Amino acid sequence: MGLVAIVGRPNVGKSTLFNRIIEERHAIVESEPGVTRDRLYATGEWNGKRFQLVDTGGIVPKSEEMFDKAIREQAMLAIEEADTIVFVVDANDGITPADYNIAEMLRGTTKPLTVVVNKCDNAKADLNANEFYALGLGEIFTISALNGRSTGDFLDHVVETLPEAVEDNDERLKVAIVGRPNVGKSSITNALLGKDRMVVTPIAGTTRDAIDSVMKYYGEEIVLIDTAGLRRRSSIKESVELYSTMRTSRAIERCDVAIVVIDAANGLEHQDKRILSEVVDARKGVIIAFNKWDLVEKETKTAEEFTTKVREELKTMDFVPVVFVSALTKQRITKLVEMSKEIQARRLARIPTHELNEALIQILERTPPPTVSARDLRINYVTQVKVAPPMFAFFLNHPELLPDAYKRFIERQLRGLYDLVGVPISFLFRKKNKREE
Fold it and tell me: Counting beta carbons within 10 angstroms of the beta carbon of residue 379, is it exposed (0 to 12), middle (13 to 18) or buried (19 or more)?
């Protein structure tokens, strides 16, 4: 996917625009300048074209204050990585010296650049915004990120500037090895490859980039993506590590199966849960691998104890398999490959429509949805519409009224009928055809 970077000085509405594009409240939006200090990443879509979006902190061009310098460096890294740049300015403030300084900085790039004048709530504001042509950066787009005014024309332009998607014809299984720093990701990759492909040191953050390697497994080529460790934002000290965090997210985006490595000596931590959520949200196959198990076994802790605790803490991820490995002793290392292959086969499997309806609809008829707003809900039909990841479409009379609790019930029943271990699944709920009523 192409990458769009949103830049500008503080408090011009960059995070509001970010949220408007991805259609959810993801970035923190406050009137206090400098709230967005780290870059935020998400996936956006417009007119059928998907892209990655990065929100940067406000650039204060000539400040020597520590945070301002760090934010400026992070923004420059985002600009360097981006395919197209969106420069946001504030219609209410007019052109400021900081806008001129940022424009001068951006003038040196050869990448597509779009100037957005935000907070234009009416035609008069649009007319006054013409002063921003003085920045010398070409055409401007007047919008209101807060209420969505004129954002469609702006997005039409932005997606036109993105490179055409290159179809990936590589059918080899792609496995990303992700996790917090210093949990043994590179050691696991080296153990699988049988050689020291990665630099392995006890220093957290040694691996700065996503690195692809190819391993042969009984004649089959499998691509291993070893990534930089994901770290809590409050713990990130260097801009290069923020850059690595983005590369890790992109590695998750292009893999088939992600192995989330956790240090068995430390157990499941909050950041591990966040990484798992990122993989599941991306609808990739997922495995939890507790590494350094040889050290834990000496303390007489059992795999059953660990698994029970994981299930208690990850109640909505009970479909994720757990395996206990040691990169040092190579204990169960090859099992990671076998499990990845099995999960990918499940992601690619298609369940026949007649079989789905015979098995699942009967269960749903025995335990129908609750009555909502004095309306009886009835699911008539289900079919699988996509693989890798599997997506199932349900047709019913009032899809907008179906409670989330019942959707979770449907998922449990579906997983009870079919082997979907390690496979996140998606549902669509649509109104049934009029002719069927």
Answer: buried
